[in-house]
Automatic annotation (TrEMBL), chain A:
Residues passing through the membrane, by range: 33-54, 89-106, 118-135, 181-203, 209-227, 248-266, 278-299, 372-394, 414-441, 462-481, 501-525, 606-624
Protein keywords: Membrane, Transmembrane, Transmembrane helix
PANTHER family, per the entry: NADH-UBIQUINONE OXIDOREDUCTASE CHAIN 5 (PTHR42829)
Gene that this polypeptide is encoded by: nuoL
Location(s), subcellular: Endomembrane system; Membrane
Protein's recorded name: NADH-quinone oxidoreductase subunit L
Automatic annotation (TrEMBL), chain B:
SUBUNIT field: NDH-1 is composed of 14 different subunits. Subunits NuoA, H, J, K, L, M, N constitute the membrane sector of the complex.
Annotated TM spans: 6-23, 28-48, 60-83
Name used for this protein in its record: NADH-quinone oxidoreductase subunit K
Organism: Streptomyces angustmyceticus
UniProt similarity note: Belongs to the complex I subunit 4L family.
Keyword tags: Cell membrane, Membrane, NAD, Quinone, Translocase, Transmembrane, Transmembrane helix, Transport
An annotated GO BP: ATP synthesis coupled electron transport
Length: 627, 99
């Protein structure tokens, strides 16, 4: 069975190679080939999953050594895969949701003349992400990590003829580089500390390393995770990444890319467990981001950007849970999976709405669409109920557990984190209700003469229906007998958190804030008509519309700061370094000019100099003798 | 007769020669003064040879004569050639080798 692991990665990789190298003759069948390879990978994943279920919990992990990649002296990097419960979860999510998005894209990208290339990039994205989650060492993980960065760059900038898309792609790539730097330094530090970067040996050796090293490792890994998962302070690329085609947004937000950071932290659990300071940084980042993303999501009128804010916020929940240690890892991954379902569903729904509305993204120009797009309305609505944590749906089970775990951290920290998570839940309820009301309810704010809203073709609605099923049932299924927690326990270990407030109280509190959030949104957007032009809004709203000034902050601090710094360095280079070099040269030149005066051309003056020199020599000789 | 007198004579001749080289401008005269200095040295060598009772100084004197003869040949040729092209034998006029 373990020999099949490499095929999981190979299938989409072959698909990508075929589509990207195949040329025009594959233009007509490219989308089918791409989808086929993606589905093949999913089918293989299901087979491996079934096989895994048949074994005892202890010996489910599979390992496949392909070949040694870089053997140099004491340095050894292997192409080796590890398929344990954690990787398996990701494989199923990536290939499953990925395949659905492939199918959806067949319809969504139907009229795009570069569709073959689009599917090639999608396959590449899947392959890179699978490599990331299947690697058994950090270096191979890093290869997948970079592959994901590349594929996201290609896909966000897929409509590269639009300058905004090209810029967004560059921005995503550059911001990700900052995080990648953290991960690469972490890997180097790992190698110098432990002499290896394979998962097993590193995690086994954590007790040998000093506290300082472990904290540094944890913080560097966190930096990497922040980049890929769009967490504060590296969150700024996510909103702009909406420039890509909508299926790409769904893929980035649900199955690949942003989940990589959560995977990295959960996978490196052994390191974080041994470094409490780094763990604290993780929960702080998570808590800050979950509020940050939620606030941004409240103010955006662009449906995709509102959803992007929500992704940031939900990933914040996962990072927060992952930072809580063994009481949170399983819930982080559980929320990741359920989020994968409903967020993919929401994005595909948003894409379906845009598809029917001539690619309009401004929600103020929507309204009353539920009659025109019933399937989209129902699937989007189920995703909406799931994300706000409506009782019984997926989001309820996973988010509730995270809030509970946050309280269970204990002490003042526990209260602050739990409070932040609860507040986040309220804001989530508010902005998602806002999206829902502005899009599907209320009056028509579009011109019936120009826009003819219609339901999308079956090839697009089918994946949405499947995802809606996931949004409804996944959380409940995972929670029967704590099935998901038990499934992951051998990898991530699990400890029951002891919350100062009982689980029932937390659930009740969640319900209360949910109702408050929905109620406020109803009061603002449901009870009275939504203006077609955005009102000026409060200071906070205006700041949130500008992504809470993240770009302004980056511009002032990093762009301007960087320019100032380089300006100073250039000045320093000119005055000090060049000054020293040029000064030496000028001094030599001046000295030579002076010495040149001796060269008069008169033989007799040379003769005097020779005579003088000879006299000095004789005098010196005599003097030396005398002494 | 005391050999030291020869040394005095040699010193005197050398000084005359050196002064001539430094003061005179005519290349021929400068040349002659150089010869004078060489021969002053020869005289000193021979005198020392006599004083120390060995032949080393005398041998060196022969070497000097050979070198001086060769030098005269080359030097006079250069002077004649300069005189032909520039119609002067003044050493100060031939001062082109400078920046």
């Amino acid at each position: 069975m373990e020999n099949l692991i490499a095929l999981l990665v190979a299938a989409p990789l072959v698909g990508a190679a075929l589509l990207l190298c195949g040329g025009k003759r594959l233009d007509r069948t490219g989308h089918l080939i791409g989808t086929l390879f993606s589905v093949a990978s999913f089918a293989l994943g299901v087979v491996l999953f079934a096989d895994m279920l048949g074994k005892g919990a202890g010996d489910r992990a599979l390992h496949q050594q392909l070949f040694t990649w870089i053997p140099v002296g004491g340095f050894r990097a292997d192409i080796a895969f590890q398929l344990d419960q954690l990787s398996m979860t990701f494989v199923l999510l990536i290939t499953g949701v990925g395949s659905l998005i492939h199918i959806y894209s067949i319809g969504y990208m139907e009229h795009d003349e570069r569709r073959r290339r689009f599917f090639g990039y999608l396959n590449l994205f899947l392959a890179a992400m699978l490599l990331l989650v299947l690697a058994d060492n950090y270096l191979l993980l890093y290869a997948g990590w970079e592959g994901v960065g590349l594929a996201s760059y290609l896909l966000i900038g897929f409509w590269q003829h639009k300058p905004s898309a090209a810029t967004a792609a560059k921005k995503a790539f550059l911001v990700n580089r900052v995080g990648d730097m953290g991960l690469s330094i972490a890997i180097m530090l790992m190698f110098t500390t432990f002499g290896t970067f394979a998962f097993g040996p590193v995690f086994a050796a954590t007790d040998r390393a000093g506290q300082g090293t472990l904290t540094a490792l944890g913080l560097l890994l966190l930096l990497g995770a922040c980049g890929k998962s769009a967490q504060v302070p590296l969150q700024s690329w996510l909103g702009d990444a909406m420039e890509g085609p909508t299926p790409v947004s769904a893929l980035i937000h649900a199955a690949t890319m942003v989940t990589a950071g959560v995977y990295l932290i959960t996978r490196s659990g052994a390191i974080f467990n041994a470094a409490p300071t780094a763990q604290l940084a993780v929960v702080v980042v998570g808590a800050v981001t979950l509020l940050f993303g939620a606030i941004v999501g409240c103010a955006k009128d662009d449906i995709k950007k509102a959803l992007a804010g929500s992704t940031m916020s939900q990933i914040g929940y996962m990072i927060l849970a992952a930072g809580l240690g063994p009481i949170g890892y399983a819930f982080a991954i559980m929320h990741l999976v359920t989020h994968g379902f409903f967020k993919a569903g929401l994005f595909l729904g948003a894409g379906s709405v845009m598809h029917g509305m001539n690619d309009e993204v401004d929600m103020r120009r929507y309204g009353g669409l539920r009659k025109y797009m019933p399937v989209t309305f129902i699937t989007f609505g189920l995703g909406y109920l799931a994300i706000i944590g409506f009782p019984g749906l997926s989001g309820f089970f996973s988010k509730d557990k995270i809030i509970e775990a946050a309280f269970a951290r204990g002490g003042t920290e526990g209260w602050i984190l739990g409070g932040a998570a609860l507040l986040g839940a309220a804001i989530t309820a508010f902005y998602m209700t806002r999206v829902m009301l502005m899009t599907f309810f209320g009056e028509k704010r579009w011109d019936p003469a120009e826009v003819h809203p219609h339901e999308s073709p079956k090839v697009m609605t089918l994946p949405m229906i499947v995802l809606a099923f996931g949004s409804v049932f996944a959380g409940g299924l995972f929670s029967i007998n704590e099935a998901f927690v038990k499934w992951l326990e051998p990898v991530t270990s699990f400890a029951h958190g002891h919350s100062p407030v009982s689980a029932t109280t937390v659930t009740a509190a969640t319900m209360v804030v949910l109702v408050i959030g929905v109620g406020i949104a109803w009061g603002m957007y449901g009870r009275k008509p939504v203006p077609a032009l955005a009102p000026r809004g409060s200071l906070l709203t205006r700041a949130a519309r500008r992504d809470l000034l993240q770009d302004d902050f980056n511009h002032v601090v990093f762009v301007r700061g960087g320019q100032e710094l380089t300006g100073t360095l250039v000045q320093l280079d000119r005055s000090v370094v060049d000054g020293a070099v040029n000064g030496t040269a000028a001094a030599m030149g001046g000295l030579s000019g002076l010495l040149r005066q001796l060269q008069t051309g008169f033989v007799r003056s040379y003769a005097v100099q020779m005579l003088g020199g000879a006299a000095v020599l004789v005098a010196a000789t005599l003097l030396m003798r005398g002494v | 007769m005391n050999p030291v007198y020869y040394l005095y004579l040699a010193a005197l001749l050398f000084t005359i020669g050196a002064a001539g080289v430094l003061i005179r401008r005519n290349a021929i005269v400068v040349f002659m003064c150089i010869e004078l200095m060489l021969n002053a040295c020869n005289l000193a060598f021979v005198t020392f040879s006599r004083m120390h009772g060995n032949l080393d100084g005398q041998i060196i004197a022969f070497f000097t004569m050979v070198v001086a003869a060769a030098e005269v040949v080359v030097g006079l040729a250069i002077i004649v050639s300069i005189f032909r092209t520039r119609h002067t034998a003044s050493v100060d006029d031939a001062s082109l080798m400078k920046l």
